[in-house]
Design brief:
The structure holds two protein chains of two kinds. The two termini of chain A are 29 Å apart. By secondary structure, chain A is mostly helical. In chain A, 71% of the residues lie in helices and 7% in strands. By secondary structure, chain B is of the alpha+beta class. Chain B is 25% helix and 38% strand. Chain B contains five helices and 13 strands. The longest helix of chain B has 27 residues, at 228-254. Classes of the chains: A mainly alpha, B alpha+beta.
């Protein structure tokens, strides 16, 4: 069933969009990533103009994150206090990121910077996670897992300590704020919610338990992507509501399935899978940069 | 949408009177195309007759060329090259005028029925439909960029040349079918019909087909451009409701 999208001005198969939304929704529910880093390249691939893909992808992520976070709240897996601290940092960070984005766009190199930062960050995070989670998996098989939540890094000796009860942490607000800012900058530069950076940062930098991390990340992503969607609608008129609705219908269902799948798997297994997924996307992007393309020319609308 | 002939409208135009003897009387299967949600392309039938007061001239044969041109917008064509081991966009040429859709249909091979000077003057063939003024100083091979533009658009089905696509009967009646793709851009589509003899245009007729979105598509498009804040808010409300509904439904199914 072909459907004509009014803002993108292209005609696409509706079932294909349901499917794409569904796959991304499953991943979103399982790993607590918004899925922006997957949905946006997939939309490029089926011929949606990049500006529309970025803006509409953000809109879809809002829906799948709401769906996912509600399931997580019922399971008491959301640390609201931590979420708000991260969000405060995130909004500051995305303001900085948008400013940097505009400077780079004027210099005509934004595409390259976006691609390179995807490759670098996805590769780095993917490898770190894979290594750590494989080691944890091996340990879990052998002896009883050692619970070592409070690694006392210098980070934890900063002032302004707050109790994050859901995470079982009593740490300074400075590290979460900084993580929020960093993720916000990257999210704005790469046009994503930032879950795939946020999740490992919360686990490895802040020492939060994996279960709480997913819900808290989703909670934070809702606000960041809602802000992005609204700004795109206001300035570029590039949110395609019909496209978003089709993706959302697939996505919200997928997110529910993903949340249930995630609850069945062990935290270490989840982390291995997320690491592999991240590395897969990274590899694809790296190959695009390195291999001689079939067509060296491309057409873009002026100003787009 | 494919198939049904919406409105039969015969447009008469007394062009070609300058040359006197022969003129075009033509019709289109539809003078407007509505893009609805399930729009998946359209067949445009262009037909007509040659009107003449005198007997069919002997000597060279009559030929017909039909062009359909979609709305145009300036574009940037970029070229990648390898730098520091990776492929990045290094050169760009702006094309000032390139139609979003351009189809040429003829009754015989182009080279046999149209002279180059006439093509330049009337801008009939696909390369003539594109106008690129001035490439930047660092680009020395700007024709390669316009050639790439045509190649990409032809591959996507947006530009086409169909030699022999016009059926011409007894030098009087002609008809041609033009396939319009599913991802049409809104706007005025200019249709031109040329009559040629001796590789020169002896009569011309043009008509406009209005392509526009209707129904839900029109409403969303208008809302997005006229009231962007309301549109953005609506998009978010829909997203939140959809997320909540899915969560609620799944919870209900589970217990």
């Amino acid at each position: 069933m072909q459907i004509y999208l009014p803002i993108a001005e292209v005609s696409v198969n509706a079932y294909l969009l349901f499917g794409l939304g569904g796959i991304v929704g499953v991943l979103s529910g399982m790993f607590g990533v918004g899925g922006g880093f997957l949905i946006t390249p997939l939309l490029f691939f089926i011929g949606i103009p990049p500006t529309v893909a970025v803006a509409t992808g953000a809109n879809q992520v809002v829906a799948s994150s709401v769906s996912g976070v509600l399931a997580q709240i019922r399971r008491r897996n959301v640390d609201f206090r931590m979420g708000l601290v991260l969000l405060a940092g995130g909004i500051l960070g995305s303001a900085i990121g948008i400013w940097v984005f505009n400077i780079l766009r004027q210099k005509g190199q934004i595409d390259l910077v976006v691609q390179l930062s995807y490759v670098v960050f996805l590769g780095l995070i993917g490898l770190l996670m894979l290594q750590e989670s494989l080691r944890a998996l091996g340990r879990a098989k052998g002896t009883q897992p050692r619970i070592k939540r409070h690694q006392h890094l210098w980070l934890h000796n900063l002032p302004l300590k707050i109790k994050f009860r859901a995470s079982g942490l009593y740490i300074s607000v400075v590290p979460p704020l900084l993580v929020g800012v960093l993720v916000g900058v990257l999210a704005a530069l790469m046009g994503v919610g930032g879950g795939f950076i946020m999740v490992p940062a919360m686990i490895y930098l802040l020492g939060m338990p994996t279960k709480v991390v997913i819900g808290t990340s989703l909670f934070q992503i809702i606000f960041v992507t809602a802000f992005t969607t609204f700004m795109h609608a206001l300035t570029n008129q590039s949110v395609d509501m019909l496209l978003a609705v089709l993706l959302i219908v697939g996505g919200v269902v997928g997110a529910q399935i993903g949340t249930r799948l995630g609850a069945r798997l062990k935290a270490e297994q989840l982390r291995v899978l997320l690491a592999l997924l991240v590395l897969l996307v990274c590899g694809k992007l790296a190959i695009d940069l390195l291999v001689t393309p079939a067509e060296v020319y491309s057409i873009t609308a002026v100003g787009g | 949408m494919r198939g049904p002939i919406a409105a039969l409208m015969v447009l008469l135009l007394s062009l070609g009177a300058a040359r006197g003897s022969e003129e075009v009387v033509a019709g289109l299967s539809q003078d407007s195309i509505s893009i609805t949600a399930n729009f998946d392309g359209s067949d445009l039938l262009i037909y007509g007759a040659v009107k003449r007061e005198v007997p069919i001239p002997t000597g060279t044969a009559l030929a017909v060329i039909i062009t359909v041109e979609g709305p145009s917008a300036p574009l940037t064509v970029r070229r990648k090259s390898r730098k520091f081991g990776i492929w990045i966009n290094t050169a760009a040429v702006e094309v000032d005028y390139a139609p979003s859709f351009y189809a040429v249909t003829t009754s015989a091979p182009m080279a046999e029925i149209l002279s180059q000077t006439e093509d330049l003057r009337r801008k009939i063939s696909v390369p003539q439909a594109i106008r690129s003024v001035g490439a930047p100083m660092d680009v020395t091979d700007s024709p390669a960029f316009t050639a790439a533009l045509i190649r990409l658009r032809e591959a996507g089905g947006y530009y086409s040349l169909s030699e022999g696509g016009v059926r011409l009967e007894q030098e009087t009646l002609f008809r041609a079918d033009v396939d319009l793709p599913a991802d049409l851009i809104e706007g005025a589509y200019q249709t031109r019909i040329f009559l040629l003899r001796d590789k020169r245009v002896i009569a011309q007729h043009s008509a406009v087909i209005d392509v526009r979105m209707v129904g839900l598509e029109r409403w969303l498009f208008t809302l997005a451009h006229e009231w962007p804040a309301a549109y953005g808010a609506l998009a978010l409300v829909l997203a939140v409701i959809a997320g909540w509904a899915a969560s609620a439904i799944f919870r209900y199914l589970r217990y």
